[in-house]
Write a structure and sequence with these properties.
The chain has helices spanning 19-22, 39-56, 61-73, 76-88. By secondary structure, it is an all-alpha fold. The chain has a single domain, classed as Cytochrome c oxidase, subunit VIb (Arc Repressor Mutant, subunit A), CATH 1.10.10.140. Helix 2 runs antiparallel to helix 3. The longest helix has 18 residues, at 39-56. The protein is elongated.
Length: 95
């Protein structure tokens, strides 16, 4: 089993990882943002989630796609800041 201190070996398979990590996936490639810097991608997915959840409700399945995307792409500090701005009414985008 792989632990945080296990040295990397390219021959590891998914069976070598602990259960919570076996099905982890990253956000798929978005051709609208082909560059390495994913800031705009993070921002757009956050805004799309906020708009979707406002119209459809946070539990709506399609909204969860945007939530998963921004949770993967955005640093936690940014998400906290965005949430604080929305709560304070100072978010720089119309939701």
């Amino acid at each position: 089993m792989i632990t945080p201190n296990t040295p990397w070996n390219p021959k590891y398979t998914s069976a070598d990882f602990p259960e919570p990590y076996k099905n982890m996936k990253t956000h798929p490639f978005d051709p609208r943002y082909p560059n390495t810097n994913q800031t705009k991608n993070c921002w757009q997915n956050y805004v799309d989630f906020q708009r979707c959840s406002k119209v459809r409700g946070e539990d709506y399945e399609a909204c969860q796609y945007f939530k998963k995307a921004y949770r993967i792409l955005c640093p936690n500090e940014w998400i906290e800041k965005f949430d604080d701005q929305i709560a304070a009414g100072t978010f720089p985008m119309k939701i």
